[in-house]
Design a protein that fits this description.
Elements lengths: L1 E6 L2 E6 L2 E5 L20 E3 L5 H4 L2 H8 L2 E5 H8 L6 E4 L4 E4 L2 E7 L5 E2 L2 E2 L4 E7 L2 E5 L19 E5 L8 H11 L3 E5 L11 H11 L3 E2 L7 E3 L2
Parallel strand pairs: 3-4, 4-5, 5-6, 12-13, 13-14, 14-15
Antiparallel strand pairs: 1-2, 1-16, 2-3, 7-8, 8-11, 9-10, 11-12
Helix pairs in contact: 4-5
The structure holds nickel (II) ion and manganese (II) ion.
Amino acid sequence: MKVTYLGHSALMLAHNGVSLLIDPFITGNPLATVRQEDLAPQFILLTHGHADHVGDTLAIAKRTHATVVAPFELINLLEAEGLQNGIGMNIGGTFQFEDGTARLTPALHSSSYEGSYAGPACGYRIDWGGLKFYHAGDTDLFGDMRFFAEESIDYAFLPIGGRYTMDGLAALKAIRWIYPRHVIPMHCNTFPEIQADPDAFVLLVNETTGSQGLVLSPGATLELG
Ligand code: NI
Ligand code: MN
């Protein structure tokens, strides 16, 4: 199992020749180190409709015929723009793919797509290749994150940029509730409004929580175990 961080909240998980892309904001992402043309996922998961998460979804899906999973209302809006293999879901729903599952989890955030209501915002709990992942999407801290502690999450991807999501201070509290084995900060430094220091954050994670923080630079690939 490998993860490639693509900058912002975009990342790709790859296992046994199958790849799953989350929130592929590549074109227009000043931190991106790849082109959308270089990505060929079988599956795309979207946390919500904002442009910095939907990103290149339509272009990638049209080119690769990837299956796109997203909240129901967002899929409807993307289908109106030509998306073919959309699977509209809602919080609590589980998408099964190959030998993995992706479950839509709550997120405390808004969601719209090109000015239209795009349903709820969500995160994802992914079980794949013997590992448990949590991609929080855009969210503030919320109390029910405590329940994730029961699930023994291996890798949690959490926003730390503030302004539109929780900041690093709130993310530290989230980590004490979620108690993942590893934490990877995201959704920071893409724009001037969301400046944060992921290295300082990870230092605090390692010093003050029982989790291990990891900073992934955009373009970096990590072998997971
Ligand atoms: Ni957003
Ligand atoms: Mn965002």
